[in-house]
Specification:
Length: about 190
Amino acid sequence: MTDPLDAVTADPWAAWLGERERRALHLPEYRRAAVLVGLTREVDARVLLTVRSADLPTHKGQISFPGGSLEPGEDPVQAALREAFEEVGLDPAQVTVLGELDDVFTPIGFHVTPVLARLPAQPALTLSGEVAQLLLPTLSELRATPVTRETRTLPDGTRVPLYRYPWQGHDIWGMTARVLHDLLRDGPA
């Protein structure tokens, strides 16, 4: 029987995480959140994205990773797994957490830790009312998508890049596109 730890260390994404220095943010005034960046265990991995319901109070219809605010006592991994279970029914037992990506922030005051994980090729998923649709683009499809880049100035004067990935009629932008951009640019091919 194969040791699950060996499977993680043999994963090219785990090796990539181990070779880089994670950039953490320290923004005490921002609300902490986490998202699950789930990649399927396939030669051309697919990334798990959701289209948020039009009935939600914020980010209606936007494309996102499963995720949300940390609850008291939770760390980012626990929050990402809980939120993925709540939003798309992803059983945490099906998930192999590889580690945390660079923290990102949103202009509306969230400090987000993306948690990179591997999922089965065909994960059993059930959508909650928060999710209108699942998207599972392959990494090669996203790499082939002509990304656009704009620069936005935050209220404090900081200039930040804003990426957009048009994929099959969907507009992937904002924090989701920023995390994807780093993953696609720097991660294993």
